[in-house]
Structures are given as structure tokens and as C-alpha cells.
Design brief:
Blueprint: E1 2-8, H1 14-23, H2 26-34, H3 38-59, E2 66-70, E3 76-82, E4 85-87, E5 92-98, E6 101-107, E7 111-117, H4 132-140, H5 144-162, H6 176-183, E8 185-190, E9 196-203, E10 214-216
Parallel strand pairs: 1-10
Antiparallel strand pairs: 1-6, 2-3, 3-4, 5-6, 7-9, 8-9
Helix pairs in contact: 2-3, 4-5
């Protein structure tokens, strides 16, 4: 099972902003207050609340009963507040934001998601970030900026699932079959957006999962 939600924060209505502020954890509120660029604090808060609402819809509890916490390495996890005390459900959560877009996914399998708005970067500035095979793939692409965005999303998903150490100069992100062989990871990508790309990635914990078993929810 994978549930996912995509939201444009510029379309969040005032009533939902009121709810987001009311549900905000102290740690998130502090980061919002400390943000040098206020907009970045709002993106952070809205992205975390999207994950909370998505998890609540999966677990059948009110969003107010779901709390987002973080491992020491920064990875988010869920706590559900019940009368018997908080419990950690057997669901994983992943969050990504690239202003103005917010993306979240929850799953009972290993999950990661990433979204990026499409921007132009000179290829000569990317040599330290991608293998030569990936740079050639970007150069050959009909839309190099979109291909770069797609590979960047893949890279971010791998980092979220396996840690930054998995990214080496020998890792070829455009080789889907090799990534599946090496990491047991599957990708669902949407590169059709006018100004953004997104990627959902899950591991072999759900090997039979098909694209049509990914449910997009409006939360």
C-alpha cells in the first residue's frame, strides 16, 4: 500500500492555514519562527501537515491525533496519540517540498518521495554530482533541464532510503534496471508537469506493488 498526496501551497485556503497552525508541533513552530526567509518556514509547516493529514486518512484517526517526529538522522516518523498512550504505527512516511509544491507519501513498505521544480543548471556545474553516463543522458535529452530534474529526484529518493553514502561517482541514476538490481528499488515518476517532476520510490518489501496500487488522495 502506498498513499500519496500532492498539493500546491499557493492554493491552501485560510481555513486550512488556521488548522495547520493549530496542529503545529513546537519544533516545527520554532523552525518557522527562525526561518530567515518566512516563505520557507511556511513551506516546511505546510509540507509536514500534509504528511500528517495523509497518515491520518490512512490510519482512520483525526489529524490532531497524529504527531510527526524525527529520527536522529532527520528521517520523519509517525506517532499516533491514543488513550493508552502514543504508539508508533507500522507506516513509513516521506515528505518533500519544492516551492510551491508539497509532496508526501505513506506506506507499509519502505518509501521515499521527492519533488523538484524544473530549473536550469549549467552542465559544467554538475560534474561533481552525477556520473559521466548521467551527464551524457542529460545532454542527449530532448529537454535537458527536465531530465536533470528527474535524475535529481531519483538521487534524493535513494538518499532518503539508504543514506548519502549510497551516492557515488560510479552510481548511474539513468540505469533503472541496475538501480533495481543494486537496491531492490522501484520508481514511479511523473515528469509531465509543466514546471516540476516528482518521484515515488519503494523497496522490495512490496515487490508485487503495481502503479495502480498507489492511491493519490486529496487531504
Amino acid at each position: 500500500m502506498i498513499l500519496a498526496a500532492l498539493q500546491n501551497m499557493d492554493r491552501i485556503d485560510p481555513e486550512l492555514w488556521t488548522q495547520i497552525n493549530a496542529r503545529m508541533e513546537p519544533e516545527t513552530a520554532e523552525r518557522v519562527r527562525a526561518a530567515v526567509v518566512p516563505r520557507k518556514g511556511l513551506v516546511l509547516a505546510a509540507g509536514r501537515d500534509l504528511a500528517r493529514r495523509l497518515a491520518a486518512s490512512a490510519l482512520g484517526v483525526p489529524p490532531e491525533n497524529v504527531r510527526l517526529a524525527h529520527e536522529k538522522d532527520g528521517r520523519p516518523f509517525l506517532l499516533v496519540c491514543r488513550q493508552a498512550g502514543p504508539e508508533r504505527p507500522a507506516l513509513e512516511v516521506s515528505i518533500s517540498h519544492s516551492d510551491p509544491y508539497l509532496l508526501s507519501a505513506v506506506s507499509d513498505a519502505g518509501i521515499a518521495c521527492d519533488i523538484q521544480t524544473i530549473r536550469h543548471f549549467p552542465l559544467e556545474a554538475l560534474s561533481g554530482f552525477f556520473a559521466e553516463a548521467d551527464l551524457q543522458c542529460i545532454r542527449r535529452a530532448e529537454d535537458p533541464d527536465r531530465m536533470l530534474c528527474r535524475l535529481w529526484c531519483r538521487q534524493e529518493c535513494l538518499i532518503k532510503r539508504f543514506g548519502r553514502a549510497c551516492i557515488t561517482r560510479q552510481l548511474v541514476l539513468c540505469d533503472t534496471a541496475e538501480l533495481r538490481k543494486q537496491f531492490g528499488i522501484h520508481f514511479l515518476e511523473d515528469v509531465s508537469g509543466e514546471d516540476r517532476c516528482l518521484c515515488l520510490a519503494w523497496t522490495e518489501a512490496a515487490p508485487a506493488l503495481a502503479d495502480n496500487q498507489i492511491e493519490w488522495r486529496q487531504v
